[in-house]
């Protein structure tokens, strides 16, 4: 998106229908838009319609979201100070603040090393921890952090052997205020902080380590690592659902050469549930989520298969457009909020979590979905949009009281819900 924005600013007269080559994109991006012209249309709309409209809306309704933005920025402010990677893996992964890591301290076994790593990861702030191998297919093809343009990305560094995947949930009360008053940064900051702490601890023991996290950026794609590490299953919305937190999970990965015992992938019925649920697709304001009955039956033929990994197709261009339309902290997170798996622990939800994976008939899941769709009120998808599009910037649930600006602030506030 930054590349697209820069190209439009450098070529202000360009419009849809003009040759995409006139924007002087890097060759891979030009090829991408040639293959997916609908993405070109969405990304053009982002900067020519959506963002300008959002700026107009902010001038009217912005004060209503003052406290939500302040809350979000506190995490963003802290996360921006976390150390990232400034050198290639062969250098940065073996240094601590510019100094070489010490000689490696041997563990008695890979199993005990994994036990220790998981224990300290939890104490550093991680809610969930899993371990898998550093599969080459799930790393980016190039542009690893700290690497010069001439760096050879054709093979993984030899010391990239294991992936420690950690996750934390967003605050339950705020995520239910999605898409307007929730924030990803609260969990981004927490999981990034835990990952950086874990990187430092592993290095102190004399082993190479590199954290990929929301606030320090990534060298890899996290969901497949999370699934291989046994934290959960892929869902209709494209990310992972875990038994403990549902889809309400933000993740980071620490790559290391410390010999570890790996975990196995798990199955607890998410794929079968997502095949029939479709609540996230029904609620998605942008229409970015597929309604197909299974990944293999999507309207895109055989579904989305990347490097052997099958998952649901997500229209990222449509999704990002709504990100830039919504008010409050930028983003949406609505698919997380509406997911039936994203529920606080209580006896009702605990019974559902226990019984559903153990029912081979699927009748229990069908009953749960019927109750969800008939006994609970929530907005229609159009209500999440801006007023000019027939909405009123609705939230899935009312935002928590501490984010009610009209309660705390002596400023003029216009509520979008009253117009």
Can you describe what's shown?
This protein is an alpha+beta fold and 419 residues long. It has a domain at 83-256. It contains 16 helices and ten strands. A four-stranded antiparallel sheet has the order 3-4-8-5, sandwiched between helices. Strands 1-2 form a two-stranded antiparallel ribbon. It has a two-stranded antiparallel ribbon with strand order 6-7. Helix 4 runs parallel beside helix 8 and helix 6 crosses helix 8. The radius of gyration is 22 Å and the shape is globular. The two termini are 33 Å apart. The model has no long low-confidence stretch (mean pLDDT 92).
Provide the descriptors you would attach to this structure in a database record.
single chain; 419 residues; alpha+beta; 4-stranded antiparallel β-sheet; 38% helix; globular
The main sheet orders its strands as 3-4-8-5
The amount of helix comes to 25-40%
Question: Strand portion, in percent?
Answer: 5-15%
Main beta sheet: 4 strands, antiparallel
- DSSP strand tally: 10
Rg estimate, integer Å = 22 Å
Query: Low-confidence parts lasting 5 or more residues at pLDDT below 50?
Result: none
What general outline do the C-alpha atoms trace? globular
User: Helix-strand pattern, N to C?
Assistant: HHHHHEEHEEHHEHEEEHHEEHHHHH
Structure classification: alpha+beta
Distance between the termini: 33 Å
Produce the secondary structure layout:
Blueprint: H1 2-10, H2 27-35, H3 37-61, H4 66-79, H5 89-92, E1 95-96, E2 99-100, H6 110-123, E3 128-133, E4 162-168, H7 172-175, H8 185-204, E5 209-212, H9 222-228, E6 233-234, E7 240-241, E8 250-256, H10 270-277, H11 279-283, E9 304-306, E10 309-311, H12 316-323, H13 334-338, H14 347-355, H15 363-375, H16 405-408
Antiparallel strand pairs: 1-2, 3-4, 4-8, 5-8, 6-7, 9-10
Helix pairs in contact: 2-3, 3-12, 4-8, 6-8
């Amino acid at each position: 998106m930054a590349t697209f924005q820069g190209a439009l600013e450098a070529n202000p007269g360009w419009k849809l229908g003009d040759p995409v080559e006139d924007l002087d994109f890097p060759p891979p991006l030009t090829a991408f838009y040639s293959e997916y012209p609908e993405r070109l249309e969405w990304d053009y709309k982002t900067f020519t319609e959506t963002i300008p409209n959002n700026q107009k809306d902010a001038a009217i309704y912005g004060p209503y979201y003052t406290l939500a933005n302040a809350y979000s920025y506190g995490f963003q402010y802290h996360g921006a100070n976390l150390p990232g990677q400034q050198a290639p893996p062969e250098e940065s992964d073996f240094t601590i603040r510019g100094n070489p890591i010490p000689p490696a301290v041997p563990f008695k076994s890979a199993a005990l090393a994994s036990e220790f790593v998981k224990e300290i990861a939890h104490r550093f702030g991680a809610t969930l921890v899993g371990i898998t191998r550093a599969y080459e297919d799930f790393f980016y093809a190039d542009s690893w952090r700290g690497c010069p343009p001439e760096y050879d990305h054709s093979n993984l560094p030899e010391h990239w052997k294991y992936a420690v995947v950690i996750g934390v949930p967003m605050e339950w009360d705020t995520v239910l205020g999605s898409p307007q008053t929730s924030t990803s940064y609260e969990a981004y900051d927490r999981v990034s902080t835990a990952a950086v702490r874990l990187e430092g601890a592993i290095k102190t023991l004399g082993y190479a380590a590199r954290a990929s996290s929301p606030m320090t950026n990534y060298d890899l794609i996290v969901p497949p690592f999370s699934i291989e590490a046994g934290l959960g299953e892929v869902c209709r919305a494209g990310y992972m659902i875990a038994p403990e937190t549902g889809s309400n999970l933000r993740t980071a990965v620490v790559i290391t050469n410390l010999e570890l015992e790996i975990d196995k992938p798990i199955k607890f019925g998410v794929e079968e549930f997502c095949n029939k649920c479709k609540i996230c697709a029904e609620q998605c304001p942008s229409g970015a989520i597929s309604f197909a009955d299974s990944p293999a039956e999507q309207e895109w033929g055989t579904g989305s298969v990347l490097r052997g990994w099958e998952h649901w197709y997500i229209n990222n261009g449509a999704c990002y457009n709504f990100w830039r339309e919504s008010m409050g902290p930028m983003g949406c997170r609505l698919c997380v909020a509406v997911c039936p798996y994203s529920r606080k622990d209580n006896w009702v939800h605990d019974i559902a979590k226990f019984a559903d994976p153990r029912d081979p008939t699927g009748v229990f899941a069908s009953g749960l979905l019927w109750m969800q769709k008939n006994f609970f009120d929530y907005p229609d998808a159009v209500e999440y949009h801006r007023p000019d599009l027939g909405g009123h910037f609705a939230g899935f649930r009312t935002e928590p009281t501490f984010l009610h600006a009209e309660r705390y602030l002596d400023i003029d506030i216009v509520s979008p819900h009253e117009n």
